[in-house]
Every structure is written in structure tokens, then in C-alpha cells.
Amino acid sequence: MISEWKKIEKKEFAPIYLIIGTEDYIINETKKRLVAGVLGEEDTDFNYANFDLDETAIEQVVEEAETIPFFGDRRLIIASNPSFLTTEKTKSKMEHRTTRLEDYLKEPVEYSILVFIAHVDKLDERKKLTKLIKKQATIIDAKRPNEAEMQKWLQAISNFNEFKMDNSATDRLIELTGGQLTTAMNELDKLMLYKLEERVILSSDIESLVVRSLEQNIFLLLDKMIALDVSGALSIYYDLLKQKEEPIKILALIASQFRLLTQIKLLEKQGFSQQQVAQKLKVHPFRVKLGARQAKSFAYHELTAILERLAQMDFEMKTGYGDKAQKLEWFLFSLQDQRKVQKL
Questions:
Q1: Among residues 52, 51, 47, which one has the least CA distance to residue 37?
Q2: Which of 32, 44, 199, 267 is the most exposed place for a label (fewest CB within 10 A)?
Q3: Would you say 332 and 238 are in contact if contact means Cβ atoms under 8 Å apart?
Q4: For residue 110, what is the DSSP state?
Q5: Mind listing the pLDDT tens digit for each residue in 26-39?
Q6: Coil/strand/helix, residue 155
Q7: Given the DSSP bridges, would you call strands 16-20 and 112-118 parallel, antiparallel or unpaired?
Q8: Distance of CA 282 to the CA centre of its chain
Q9: Is 154 helix (H, G, I), strand (E, B) or coil?
């Protein structure tokens, strides 16, 4: 991936690119680099076209690619949602004459760069057209990285920009951004700007500068409760209230996290690995890893009992019974007491 970006920066373009995957950061960054590398400011209006293949026939895209550039050296054509390469069902009634594309793939013109973006995990490898385009195109993998891949990715981006960031800082950045590459990259851009002179990013920089999402604050709140740090948990809770977060929304996220812990606990008891749990629950593997760590502090029956209490609180909040903020406060205290009893 990084090597292909470097080639684009050097203006070493491939005639055809195929981007496969669902990680928006990689997709958008590749598009941005291609636009900057292929087109000048004056070319964008005349030599750039962006198509949605759910709405545009492929033969029109090919025709656009075969059109000679106007006041420029190259044309850049981007075509998204090539359903004819996948097994995905689409509501679009667009019919594509893919034989026209097959002919173009065999002999692409020199003056156009044609980019296909398949926002899916994989293509339909059984199709003749899929095999042909994968053979002819430069493939950009835009899959969502697992934790190990994300560590390498962040280190590579740091090195590419001539910054140093050790493993502990990288791990903390991943943790605070919930393993979401787009969020992590946005925060890394901010960190690099802040440390532009020193060009070294430390764990302390990440602690002080990275913005925690509401979901991350909920995770940290539960971590505080498990560690018997009620003052720390309440401090996070009060900060959320100061930020005008609604108690009922906070409750919903706490319930969502406990529901995840319950599911992880159950599936682990059935012998599933963390990777299998992530696939089964359709959640990020990093979130499962952190959830599994929290779930170890609870028995399965404790988690189901907590979920019942949270469901009752949700009902009371929605029916106007009692003070909403105070209800959550008492829940945190009661959970703290439960943790203390288990430690005895």
C-alpha cells in the first residue's frame, strides 16, 4: 500500500487500479493522492470523472476513459460499486455491457487512469471478468486491519513522515481510538503537527492530545469500576454530564458494553477464539480483545443480572421514574460494592 502511494507521488501511474475493501481511510487517501498526482488544478474540471456504477453503465465509463484529455496530459476516471465483480445484491436495475470493459482491460489507453472501487471484503473469484481485471490492474488492498496490521500501518505512516513512535505509544493510540484506522489516522495527523519540531511521539503525547470518543469513555469507566476505583469512574461520568451527554444515552452504551461482555463470555465458554468471536458478532477484533479482558472479572450469571438491572433502569428512565442522572450514579456505586464483595 505505502509503496503504491510512493509510486503515485513519483507520478509512476498504473493504467488501471482496483481498490478492494471497506476501510474508508485507505480508499479516500488513495483517491486524494491520485487526484493530486494525476491532475493539475486547472485539469480537475475537464479531465476528472467520478461515476457510481449503480447509476451509470460501464460502457459510458469506458467511453470516458477513451476520451482524449482536454488541456492536460492525463484523465482520471473513478468508478465505484462494480457489482458485476461481486456477489453483492444491488437494488440498481442498471445493465452493464461488460464485454466493452473486457476489451478495454486488454488494451487500456496510455492517457487515462481508470480506478475501480469495490467497497466489499472480496470479489467473486468465479467470474471471468474478475480474473481478468485482477490480472490487468494494480490492486490496492483496503481491508480493515487487525491489531497487528494496524500497529505496522501506524509505524509505517510515522516512518514515512520521518517521525518516531515506539510500540507503547502505538498500542495506546490504537486503544484510545478503538482500533478504528480512520480515527487513529486523524489523531496521528494531529500528533505529527503538534510534534513537528521534535518528530518523536510519546505515550504521554497520546494521553494528553487524543480525543476519547463517548464509547471509549464508557470503556474506561467500566475499567475503573473493575479496578475498584469508584472515584475515577464517577469522575468520568460527571465529565460526560458536563459535556451535555444524556444519562439515557450513557446508560445505553453501558448496556451495549455489558451485552458484548456477556456474548464474549458465552462464546468463549463454547470454545470460540477471539477472532471467531469477532467474526460471529461482527465487531472489530480489537474491541473483542479488550472486552474479553473486562469479561474475565465477571461470572456469566453476574453479567446477565447486570443486564437485567440496566434494562429495568432503561424502562424507569424512559417512563420518567426518578432522577436519571442519580440512577446511573447509584448503579455505579452498587457495581462497586459488588466488585468489593467478590474481592473478599
A1: 47
A2: 32
A3: no
A4: S
A5: 999 999 999 988 88
A6: helix
A7: parallel
A8: 13
A9: helix
Q: Which residues, including other chains, have CB under 8 Å from residue 67's CB and lie 6 or more apart?
A: 75, 112
Residue written as cell 421514574? Answer: 321
Superfamily of domain 2-141: P-loop containing nucleotide triphosphate hydrolases (3.40.50.300)
Nearest to 224 by CA among 199, 182, 262, 254: 254
**Rounded distance between C-alpha atoms, residue 22 and residue 6, angstroms:** 22
Nearest C-alpha neighbor of 48 from the set 23, 18, 82, 71: 71
CA–CA dist 169, 119 (Å, integer): 31
Domains in the chain: boundaries: 2-141, 147-209, 214-343
Q: Max alpha carbon distance in the chain (Å)?
A: 79
Instruction: Please state the pTM of the whole predicted model.
Output: 0.67
Neighbours of 104 (CB within 10 A): 22
- Residue ranges of alpha helices (H) inside the chain are 2-9, 24-38, 44-47, 58-66, 98-106, 128-136, 147-160, 167-176, 181-194, 203-209, 214-226, 230-242, 247-269, 274-281, 285-295, 300-318, 324-343
**Residue type at 262?**
T
CATH class of 214-343: mainly alpha
On whether the CB atoms of residues 64 and 105 are closer than 8 A, the answer is: no
Question: What class does CATH assign to 147-209?
Answer: mainly alpha
Same fold, 147-209 and 214-343: no
- Give the integer Cα–Cα distance in Å for 7 and 5: 5
96 CB-near residues (< 8 Å, 6+ apart) = 53, 57, 58, 59, 84
pLDDT digits 0-9 by tens, 194-239: 999 899 999 999 988 887 777 788 888 888 877 778 788 888 888 8
**Spatial contact of 322 and 252, defined as CB atoms under 8 Å apart:** no
Q: Cell match 476520451: residue?
A: 67
